[in-house]
Amino acid sequence: xxxxxxxxxxxxxxxxxxxxHLMIHSLYSNKEIFLRELISNxxxxxxxxxxxxxxxxELLEGGxxxxxxxxxxxxxxxxxxxxxxxxxxxEDAITHLGTIAKSGTADFMKHLTGDQKKxxxxxxxxxxxxxxxxxxxxxxxxxxxxxxSPSSEGVHWSSKGEGDFEVATVDKAERGTRIVLHLxxxxxxxxxxxxxRNIIKKYxxxxxxxxxxxxxxxxxxxEEQPAVEWETVNRASALWTRxxxxxxxxxxxxxYKHIAHDFENPLSWSxxxxxxxxxxxxxxxxxxxxxxxxxxxxxxxxxxxYVQRVFVMDQAExxxxxxxRFIKGVVDSNDLSLNVSRxxxxxxxxxDSMKSALTKRVLDMLEKxxxxxxxQYKGFWKNFGQVMKEGPAEDFANKEKIAGLLRFASTHGxxxxxxxxxxxxxxxxxxxxxxxxxxxxxxxAQVKNSPHLEVFRKKGIEVLLLTDRIDxxxxxxxxxxxxxSFVDVARGDLDLGNLDSEEDKKAAEEVxxxxxxxxxxxxxxxxxxxxxxxxxxxxxDSPAILAIGEQDLGLQMRQIxxxxxxxxPDSKPIFEFNPAHPLIEKLDNEQSDERFGxxxxxxxxxxxxxxxxxxxxPAAYVRRLNKLLVELSA
Length: 634
Description:
Radius of gyration: 33 Å
Helix content: 25-40%
Binding site for ATP: 37, 41, 83, 88, 102-104, 125-130, 177, 342
CATH topology of the largest domain: Heat Shock Protein 90
Low-confidence stretches: 101-105
CATH class of the largest domain: Alpha Beta
Strand order of the largest sheet: 1-6-5-4-7-3-2-8-9
Structural class: alpha+beta
CATH architecture of the largest domain: 2-Layer Sandwich
Main location: cytoplasm
Number of strands: 22
GO molecular function: ATP binding; ATP hydrolysis activity; ATP-dependent protein folding chaperone; unfolded protein binding
Strand content: 15-25%
Keywords: ATP-binding, Chaperone, Cytoplasm, Nucleotide-binding, Stress response
Mean pLDDT: 85
Oligomer: single chain
Shape: elongated
Distance between the termini: 101 Å
CATH superfamily of the largest domain: Histidine kinase-like ATPase, C-terminal domain
Region (C): 560-634
């Protein structure tokens, strides 16, 4: 063993201590995943070397045959994993093995479910895969040297998974990393060739470089120990380059878990090879669950990019729009140069063509899922629906296609589930219905019971109920679907078109004319609080509502702008009243101007509350209401 110099003991980052304690004492249900995670890390290290060697061939140091080797020693109770990838310097080892970037552990802890098997699968998803070694080992030694560094600059990192680790400088002739796991008592099952072979076949068969295990052969004459030969135990070919007919579903699923660091099978996938003007292969996956950082728009995202099977980039963002940031997969192009950078990707017209084609492929995959597996699509929408709602604003070319994938709650449901598609809505629309009606609000209970829906219930017309924070913003980008325009039932002067009979229209005109005097009195009483007062065609049961001006912001958009610190334009609501309601009839007969004013403001404030808005002067509302109650009890 080479002499160690510059030896020092350093403490783990606090989060790593917590994680190690969890690994050692809690996550032991599915122990074998440690090998999956270490092989995955080794594969990444080899990919990085292959890419860096394009510009610096000397990094290969004469050894261009890239591989991973897994061996064991039953007597010493060790398992060793070795790769000849990029390797680590002393500083790399301290940084990568002693700390976790971006509070990975905090997120990891937050997402624990209490189910040991599921929790153990979360490990890779949060970038803490290396520490899974401590599930089966009570000591881990790492020997590494970064490619291109002299052999005297090797590093030996060692830890027993407690509060600290040792790091020393050693001689290491070969580039790359060797990890030695000293197995805990009772974990001897892993120091076995058959067991290791089965784990590799189960989790890592898709890794696109050879994973070798020792194959014992008989000793040659005169030799005491049998010679060691190595045999490849995985396919060692890039999955996406193989014909689809040769790939089993289980292989697609394991490959997804490898690239996505996910523990669940994907909902769906699409494997495609394009030939002709552009040549590339793609393998795209829809996850079953949303990643923990889905709503952090700056979080890492994108596809793994290969050029002629050579790994180039981990999160290539340029191949899919932001609203599809949850899609995982790989794209392998023959048309890009091997020295591509993020800057080049953003300016390359080839990328634009590929992005357009890949986006359509994802949307087609989702359409197929929605049509053939509606229950599965319901789960997809629950996890990714709000992100999909960003699509119409971002991707004008596919706006109609995206709109067809959107799901909403509606007045035809009773549980608030977002399951109604626009095609389904139109298929059961009333005869003569030319519009798609919707209402936005803060909660399902609020919109479901809104007075704005009264005339629609009376006529049996379905209304979409939109309660996500971004729904009003979304609808500002959706003008129509399948030739039918969208109408906000709380906005402007409601016109039901052919759904109103000529008799209904004539009766409404006559009532409006008869109530012109009341309209003027209400305008005077409410003054600057309203933009307009008019007789309502929306109401059957409630006395009054507040409608939004055709060009004004709704409540949702106002709240979003206020929350972001932006100035909200001034606007006033339209006060509509139901002339047939007893309260309105009483108001119309009220002789006292003071009492008329109080009653008018009470009705206005109640209409604001029914719309989900807050009162501008709650004290005045309470004062007027109390005054009215005293008069009634006198």
